[in-house]
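Subject: sequence -> structure tokens, single chain

Hey, anyone have a minute? Need the predicted structure for the following. Not urgent.
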Amino acid sequence: MRTFGTRTASVLTALTLVGWCTSALAQQRPVTVTVANPLAKKVVQWDEYTGRFEASERVAVRPRVSGYIDQVHFADGADVKQGDLLFTIDRRPFEIAVEAARADLARAQAQVTLGQVDYQRAQELVRSATTSVRDLDQRKANLDTALAQVMAAQAALRNAELNLEWTLVRAPIAGRVSDRRVDAGNLVTGGQDGANVLTTIVKLDPIYFVFEGSEADYIRYTRLNREGQRPSSRGVANPVRVQLADETGWPHPGKMNFVDNEVNARNGTIRGRAILDNHDLFFTPGTFGRLQLYGGTVDALLIPDEAIVADQARKVVFTVGPDNKIAAKPVTLGGFALGLRVITAGLQPADRVVVDGLANPFVRAGAAVSPEAGEIKAQPEQTGVE
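Reply:
Had a minute. Here:
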């Protein structure tokens, strides 16, 4: 038994030595990796931002006259056209006011007729020296007063008719109406101060996409505009592309139509706005999305996104030098073009980038490798390259 145990221990020791030697030989043998030069292309740079959709127009519908709600003529959440009837306020008091204003106008017109007769009679009497010029002037003043009363009565009638018209609360814009805030039978207050909100309407076609860009991006765009490389979005409707949270591409085109007039001093951002067609009313205000804004045409180096390694807070790319040893180069990342990642700084066109073999644990900075030549190929179905 003691002899058997000794033999077993010897065999295990031998196997351990063989495994250690094999591992050591594997570490000494250079790891094979695939390297390729970055793909140099002239690309259209698209800068990405997050934001939300907003209605291109928004109106809080308020009554212009006070009264009791008689009828509600829309379904909550319905799409309405401009001029559609939404609410009816009890019209009877306003119809009475119109009739009273018409009676006042008729009374004033009768006074004008009487004043004209008196004035004409006074003119004849003055010619025959039967009455004085003072009496003629008095009758002329009475006629002018009657004419002024007619004008006031006409204005009062138009005001009464306008108030009657305002008892029919119509949609000021086309769009989607919210729910009713007041039901039939309730008293509402109209006018400019303290008027009740009856409902709200938002215009959905076209629709806005509002986002905030960094101060650094704003300065870069301003410099590009000054150098004639990219026009400012203040004067030119630069193209944009939008994707929703569940989308992978950028299927929704649009264009810029507003840049704010100042940078927010608290967070160092500036507000921008794009406009998109929404004929099918698919987009809804408040929906989250991402936007790509045309950032100009630049000469860039492209590599596969898989070739980028995270090193704590920075991004690095492994390159192979003339001595076939790996060096880690910090890089600055741009967007995507042709299915590849744009590198804006940190790489040279002659660098040999490790594009395959990074999964091997022995591929690290300073390690000797056996490089094999590869090629970085673009995907032609992607856009953004000239």
